[in-house]
Fold Drug/metabolite transporter (DMT)-like permease.
Amino acid sequence: MKLRATLIGFTAILMWSFLALFTSASGRMPPFQLSAICFAIGSIPGLAVLVVNPSRLALLKQPAKVWLTGIAGLFGYHFLYFTALRNAPAVEAGLVAYLWPLLIVVGSALLPGERLRWYHVTGALAGLCGTFLIVARNGIDFNGAYAVGYGAAFLSAFTWSGYSLLTRRFDAVSTDVVTGFCLATSILSLVCHLGLETTIWPETGFEWLAVAGLGLLPVGAAFYAWDYGVKNGDIQILGAASYAAPLLSTLILTLFGFAEPSWRIALACLLVTGGAVLAAQDMFRRKIQPAVAAE
């Protein structure tokens, strides 16, 4: 059960790796407008389930703290991340924002039944180093003039890691509530768009397909898979493995001609993969021990 849930959680990481490709192909739509549309699309699978099985509507009746955590996690993270990109260079803001997998691994020590081992932290740090090689391939330059952006990036990392850890504490809450989180995030993003941005629509059918792909996968199904994974799987492994997202994203962009292959990608592959394997020691031991006992 735990292995299956961990693998389901990892599919969210795989879907997030397509975020950059779909975003690049979606045209010039401003971020909050894109977020509003994509989260609306992302709610469709959950709404379909509720229409087919109306009895599941009762599962949406949850305490206020569950709704506040979910909405703050999804909308809060994206609001802060977009704010960071508006107020700091993308490279530096991205590096700070990608502290969230490490924060999940370290913060997991506070969860009931979890023990933080040296290989969890080491694996997460290896993933962070791999991410550094990918994101900072053209160099970095932290400048105090962008303090607001860096602060927003750190808060976004703290917000997403906090949401993931708190979600684990709501393990009895059905993943159906993610539908409500997506709808609320879409509405709040629309409010931000109307107040802060100029509306720009996709110009081609291909751009609309990219927007639909964003809504169905990295800004849709991924959040359902992540919710189920962190509630029922190994959150420490998922935290360390999350560093695979920027690596896989770069590999996908390279495959489709949006980026050039380099030694940095190869070394990042070793760091991220090695870090994930190291952090997953507990899972491997659980698989080996029953096999040995069976002999």
About this structure: The two ends are 23 Å apart (CA to CA). The chain has one domain: 1-288. Residues 118 and 279 are 9 Å apart (CA to CA). Residues 291-295 have pLDDT under 50 and may be disordered.
